[in-house]
Amino acid sequence: MFRTIVIILSALSLASCGGGGGSSEPTPAPAPVPAPAPTSLSFSTDVEEIYIHNIATLTWTSANASSCEASGDWEGSKELNGSEQLTLRDAREFTFNLKCSSSNSNVEQALSVTVNSPYLYPDHWDETQTYFNNVQEQFKNPVGFHLEEIWFKSLTIPKSRFSSALSDIFLEDPEFRSDVGYDTWINYKGSTYHLSCNWVPQKYGEGVAKIIEQEQGNFKNFYSYENEGCNHPLPLKNSDGSYQVVFPGHDEGKLAFAEAPFAPSFVFNLDTKEFVDMKLPLGSHGQAIFDYDLDGDDDFITNGFNHTDPERGNTELWNCGWGIFQNNGFNDFELIPLNIPDDVLNPNRQNGFVENEGCGGAMSADAYVEDGLLYVAYGDFNQNRNNADAKWLIERERNALVIYNANDLSINEVIQLPAPYVEENFVDLEYYEEAWIGNNGKSHDTHVQFMDIDYDGDKDILISNQSYWYEKTSVLQIIMNNEGVYVDETSERLFNWNIKSGGLHQWNFSDVNNDGYLDISTTDGCGGLGAASVEGIPRPWGCQKKVAVNDGTGHFLQIIGPMEIYQEVDNTGTDYTNEELTGSGLGAVFSLDEDKRARWAWISPKDCNDGCYADGNWVLYITSIDFNLSTGPNGIDPALVGEPGFNEFYYLLHNESAQKAVIAGEYENGLEHYIATGKAEGLLPNAKSISVIVVDTYDSNPQHSIN
Ligand SMILES: [Ca+2]
Ligand SMILES: [Ca+2]
Ligand SMILES: [Ca+2]
Ligand SMILES: [Ca+2]
Q1: Omega into 569 within 30° of 0, i.e. cis?
Q2: Cα(484) to centroid(ligand 3), Å
Q3: Closest-approaching ligand to the CA atom of 236
Q4: 153 vs 484 pLDDT, higher one
Q5: For the chain, first and last CA: distance in Å?
Q6: Which of these, 64, 84, 65, lies nearest to 74 by C-alpha position?
């Protein structure tokens, strides 16, 4: 451009000379100084709003400039054209000024980038701490494990992330309620089914099976089936992806009428949405799903299998009470009796007793098959007391692991498990009733599950230890398998964990935060403080509705509990002694839908709270969280700040320097510590380099093993 202008100026001079015609040499006129073009600048950013620790790229192009200078939230001399990546670490509005200049003009532009914090903390620690302190004052024994602020604040999901959709339903049954019954869920053909069934204390044959179908938080259908009683829905999955949901019969309401707790069993067909009577009474207190014949179709083990006892008018005695339901298709099971060590059966009691006759028993069990052996862990285990030749000597009131030959179910080995946590660690424990002396003991061990919770390749054992006394307590006992030696590590492995809660009869394993490690969702009623009453404790506080994440090495921390789930109910009711308040409606049934979104379905009487009956009018709630749970602080995705895979619980638990720094207030959470110093120091952000993930991505259904 400049060159072109010069040439034009020269041509004008020549023309002027030609017009002179004089004798002297022409004198060139002085060239006029050209007016320089003004400086210009184009300045842009690729993002206007980001989360902290993310990068904004600034790009600029100048013209007619000899220098560029940055100011505001960046500084220094810049190239005339360029781009720069800036990692913005503070949550605020950043302003970037760029001024490009020549000798006689300049231009300045400003950009702004809004930087947000993704962190959202719960605001109810003080409230929660007050409840724990008030309850603890009443009791000699602990009310929970690791109830420190750091675990609550760093990982609890804030109440503000929950919301509920309400629907009216009608069901004319005053006994429609949760207790005593437990729940689970499955996802099937795009829908999520929340499954529950119960029996009613002191009432004969008053059970109801309840199934709520929802799709992405939208209520679709409610299926119910009045029955004599049951307490655990068992969704059995087949290798072809189909399901049948078995509701094994169980009605302890009959005990008040001096009858055994047998009740008809039934099965739900997910395609026809029909309940089908199995014509099979059971007293199924405790049971578990496993694959007995390793064919990919779920089978289950249960007690209460001896309904054909001739003393009850039946003709054939199968066994002492335990058995396996081998799944051969919809409502098609082979029933396989299973003896407890030292059981002695009597084929025909009409002919009198046989030597050593008698049955052992157990209230709960889980099983798995490996290398030709069937492993069964029994809770509230006891052996045949009449057997003078008892072969397997397990102390009274202790739980046991029994190893059978899988082909003939003969017993290979019996291993005594550590004493129930409460019996070993609590003071002044009492028996629930005399009949439990020497049998159940001072703990009621209501549920058992094998799971390799620390991902080291061997199966650990979880048992629910309850005590039904003044200090009503539910402990999830964690028994680690250390190369065949079983060790109680409960108190080291549970965090932010209330044990003054409902009876903990069931929990499910699913990967709620999508890191490949199975987490726990617990389910039970709102037993809470039992007979005790503590001023100002809201009723939902004692509900056994936890979601707890696994750090990848078998430690579990509660991230969600009843105070977050039940935000719509009246929290002011505190009367634990009023029978009316103990069980109306359906407690929150957890699910993880196919999009990995955590939801709860629950039912409450319409326009009345806590214990009333609204003439069949109920409100069905579907409570959802507004994001997918992940492994960062308070469940956020750590990728939001550029650290995918970071696990807040693992990091704080296993890196003491980080934990101390956060407790001291030097960093707002573990992730901030990691970004600031821990990463450079080589601190581990998760368990992945030290434990073996068996499945990278679980589906959203409950998992029964990690084989
Ligand atoms: Ca099977
Ligand atoms: Ca026990
Ligand atoms: Ca293990
Ligand atoms: Ca997980």
Answers
A1: no
A2: 10
A3: 1
A4: 153
A5: 76
A6: 84
Q: What is the pLDDT of residues 433-459, one digit of tens each?
A: 898 999 999 999 999 999 999 999 999
pLDDT tens sequence across 297-326: 999 999 998 755 544 455 455 578 899 999
Q: What is the residue type of 52?
A: I
- How do residues 581-597 score in pLDDT, each as one tens digit? 334 688 899 999 999 99
Q: Given the DSSP bridges, would you call strands 299-302 and 243-247 parallel, antiparallel or unpaired?
A: unpaired
**Per-residue pLDDT, 115:** 98
Mean pLDDT of 470-482: 92
Nearest-5° Cα angle at 637, 217 to 569: 40
- Spatial distance between the Cα atoms of 557 and 547, rounded to a whole number of angstroms: 8
Quote the ligand 4 centre to 631 CA distance (angstroms).
8
Q: How far is the CA of 422 from the centre of ligand 2 (A)?
A: 10
Of the candidates 217, 216, 131, 224, which has an alpha carbon nearest to the alpha carbon of residue 178? Answer: 224
Which of 367, 366, 368, 400 shows the shortest CA–CA distance to 382? 400
Q: In the CATH hierarchy, which fold is given to the domain comprising 40-116? A: Immunoglobulin-like (2.60.40)
Kindly identify the ligand whose nearest atom is closest to the C-alpha of 480: 3
695 confidence band (pLDDT: 50, 70, 90) = confident
561 band by pLDDT with thresholds 50, 70 and 90 = very high
Q: What DSSP state is assigned to residue 675? A: I
φ, ψ (nearest 5 deg) of residue 161: -90, 0
* C-alpha count within 13 angstroms, C-beta hemisphere, residue 637: 9
Helix (H, G, I), strand (E, B) or coil at 327: strand
User: Which listed ligand is nearest to 686 at the C-alpha?
Assistant: 4
Among the bound ligands, name the one nearest to the CA of residue 293.
1
How far does residue 329's CA lie from ligand 1's centre (Å)? 10
Task: Write down the domain spans for the chain.
Answer: 40-116, 125-635, 638-690
Ligand approaching nearest to the C-alpha of 478: 3
Round to whole Å and give the CA distance between 287 and 367.
9
**With a threshold of 0.85, does the pTM exceed it?**
yes
Residue 678 φ/ψ region, left for φ over 0, alpha for ψ in the -120 to 50 degree band, beta for the rest? alpha
Distance 639 CA to ligand 3 centre (A): 29
